Amino acid sequence: MFWNRHSRLLVVLLAAGIAALTACTSGSDKPSAAAKSSSAAPTSASPSPSPSPKPKPKPKPKPKPKPKPKPPAVNPLTGLGPVPKGPVIGVKIDNTSAAYPQIGVNDADVVYAEQVEGGLTRLLAVFASHRPSEVGPVRSVRFSDPALLRQYGKPALAFSGGAAAVVANFERSGLVDASAGAIPSAYHRAGDRPSPYNLVANLQGLTANLHKATGAKDIGMRWALKDPQQVQKAQTVHGLTGTVGGTPISFRWGAKTRRWIRTVDGADLHTASGAAVSTPNVIVQICQVTVDRGDIDAAGNPSADTKTVGNGAAYVFRDGHMLRGHWTRGNRAAPTVFRDKAGHDLLLHPGGTWVLLVGKANGLSIH
Question: Residue 96: how many CB atoms within 10 A of its CB?
């Protein structure tokens, strides 16, 4: 009895211990809801506000370098002085012995010598820097004049008249009419000369009436007072003769004046004022020349049409030397560009130039 009673008590105690152990084991595997809540949403202290960053100082902009002042624009027709104001005026001038001495030709910026009928020549003198009160003797327009002058823009042309077809061609060209017929008040007849070599134009009087004519612009000429690379390597020349039509036009180098002086039969040619006809540059421009059947003189000689749009050989005479190269001009409105065989501009001595428009069949001689 005693054993049994103690045995039963031992069993009961053993069973109670097993139950308690089971309960503890089960509780450690499954956390309570409170524990879950505490683990899932831990509480933390509110973060302290971070200090605002100080604004960085804006960098001061670097001062822009001052642009170099542009050199003052110079007269594109002479390379000297500022660009002249007012219209460009071309004047047709007789170039035969009956017209000598010519009037005002030394005041022109550029002078062209072109072939006309019978192998004779005329000058087309272009004025922008100076506007003499007397220029002449003024003669008639030719078919090739508008094409030559359109590179200047829409300048005015002073002339005495011309064949009907030639005048009609001029009127279609867009150039400004400054002829004796259009502005008679700017012309007079010189009493000491025979007709038709006595018509004289007053360029100051013409200027007052030429509101639509354009001013001086780039026509392709490039200027340099010193050009040692081209000139020092170039051939020394004391004189030249370019044959325009059947007329030899000659110049000799004046070492004292540093200019080319025009000569006729070996003697210096002078203007009406007594000054030698001279220029710092002479350009010989080799051109194609065709016959113009629309302009025939009283003797039955057709005039010539000199083509100044295209290309060909060119020779520049400056500082007693001859520079060889070529000329190109793409269309009537384009400038005439003169370059050497390496593609460098043929540079002219500042002060203006004469341009001899020599036909391919004619020639150039130097000495």
Answer: 14
pTM for the whole structure: 0.81
Q: How far is CA 189 from CA 90, 274, 280, in A?
A: 19, 20, 31
Q: Which positions ≥6 away from 278 have C-beta within 8 Å?
A: 106, 254, 257, 259, 260, 261, 262
Determine contact, residues 283/355, Cβ cutoff 8 Å.
yes
Contact 75, 142 (CB under 8 A): no
The full 3-state SS of 51-72, as one line of letters, equals CCCCCCCCCCCCCCCCCCCCCC
Task: Find the Cα–Cα–Cα–Cα dihedral 190, 192, 194, 197, rounded to 10°.
Answer: -50
**165-195 core/surface letters (b: 16 or more CB in 10 A; e: else):** ebbebbeebebbbbbbebbeebbbebeebee
Burial class (CB in 10 A: 0-12, 13-18, 19+), 80: middle
List Cβ neighbours of 226 (8 Å cut-off, separation of 6 or more).
none
What type of residue sits at position 35?
A: A
Whole-angstrom distance, CA of residue 273 vs CA of residue 293: 38
Instruction: Calculate the average pLDDT of the chain.
Output: 87
Q: Are 310 and 275 in contact (CB under 8 A)?
A: no
Out of 32-36, 84-88, 137-141, 190-194, least confident range: 32-36
Q: State residue 185 phi and psi, 5-degree precision.
A: -70, -15
| Alpha carbons 128 and 299: distance in angstroms, whole number | 36
Single-letter residue type at 353 = T
353, pLDDT greater than 80: yes
**Would you say 162 and 143 are in contact if contact means Cβ atoms under 8 Å apart?**
no
Distance (Å, whole) CA 325 – CA 341: 6
Q: Are 249 and 181 within 8 A, CB to CB?
A: no
Share of the chain above pLDDT 90, in %: 74
